[in-house]
Design goal:
- The chain contains one helix and six strands.
- The protein has 130 residues and is an alpha+beta fold.
- Strands 1, 2, 3, 4, 5 and 6 form a six-stranded antiparallel β-sheet that branches.
- It is rod-shaped and about 90 Å long.
- 15% of the residues are buried.
Length: 130
């Protein structure tokens, strides 16, 4: 038979177990939230690196277009843009067009672009990522 003191001891045991379970649930929620935030930050960094490598590759293509406008230019060089670098492949002549190809890498995210322009006016014919 239970006495009043036994019931009070059981009530304390239930309270302790409930507190432990609630603490575990809150800890689990905090861990999931922090992991999600961390992974979101990593994805954002990857997207920014890819965007930066594309912008640098585009800048190299524009550099080549300006050099062509000034005079004879064959490409095949590395260009430093701020603290980054891109490479221009040799320019390919295809009929009335010239094909320029550039590549830039930022934090292991590489972008390779191809720009086809008219040889006479330097107008864009096609522009694509390879």
């Amino acid at each position: 038979m239970y006495t009043t003191s036994d019931k009070k001891q059981n009530t304390g045991f239930v309270a302790v177990i409930t507190a432990i379970v609630v603490t575990l649930i809150i800890t689990l929620i905090a861990m999931v939230t922090s992991t999600t935030s961390y992974l979101g930050r990593v994805d954002t960094t990857r997207i920014e690196s890819k965007s930066m490598s594309r912008q640098i590759a585009e800048a190299c293509l524009e550099h080549a277009r300006v050099k062509l406008a000034v005079g004879v230019y064959t490409g095949n060089e590395a260009i430093a843009i701020d603290s980054y670098q891109c490479t221009l492949d040799p320019i390919i002549v295809s009929g009335a067009n010239k094909i320029l190809t550039s590549k830039a890498t930022v934090d292991n995210k590489t972008t390779k672009l191809e720009l086809t322009i008219l040889a006479t006016t330097l107008e864009t014919v096609t522009f694509k990522e390879l």
